[in-house]
Amino acid sequence: MSAVNDTKFQPAVFPLTGIPGQEDVHVWISIPFCLMYVISILENSVILFIIKRDPSLHEPMYIFLSMLAVTDLGLSISTMPTTLGIFWFNSREISHDACFAQVFFISLLSFTESSVLLSVAFDRLVAIRNPLRYASILTPHRIAKMGLVSLLRGVGLIFPLPILLKQYQYCQANILSHSYCLQQEVMKMACSDIRGNITYSFFLAVSSVGFDLLLILLSYVMILKTVLSIASHTARLKALNTCVSHICVMLLFYMPSISLSVIYRYSKNFSPLVQIVMAHVYLLVPHLMNPIVYSVKTKPIRARIIRVFVK
Question: What pTM was computed for the model?
Fold first, then answer.
């Protein structure tokens, strides 16, 4: 009898969903998705190649940019197999372990990217407030420590998530409404009491993304205060211009993330299509646009890219 109950309440796989109602044209829908994945991977790979190849770009700002490129690559690769698998091969199932692993890597890389954005804000703060001490404060050794701390913090915070999710029983009728596993949705598929997971998820949001965003805002308050104290109008604009690319990337990362959290919090007020679209925007658009923003707004990167392709 126990085996029968386990089969009923603990299916071996989670069913995934592509674009509901559009199954007949999934092959055509896959074309823009495939293009976005390929372009995102190529863009971030080019950024990493250029920074590694050119010694003049081995400076704090570009090292942090390479960290962002690595996290963007990881996020693209972590969702690409299940998304394209649905559109191309109608592969609509994912095992529990594979789903929990996907949740782990998506959450880890997202939290790591948030930490790196905080590091970039600190980089801009030091560059504007203490330009003469910039090189002595942001040494390669210190930057490596910041990157390692960002990664280890993410691992430490996210590691309990798949363990918590694995403890639950899942109802057979539940179907994930996306083409990949999102932690917010997976925990709602459980037939068990998920209050512990909800509490821990709230703690994660506050202690990672919320904390990082607060410190980034404080950094920009201090940057703005410093810039306004500069006498020359031209110098003020020049100082602010160095922050534009980071502000754009920050908005591209945090706005979809916060919007997706709000949609899941008040899911009854939004149609399933809005949830699906926002979920794909959250994990596709920022990683597609980040290299473009930095290439357009950062002259040394733009010049090296032009030089590589002109040759």
Answer: 0.89
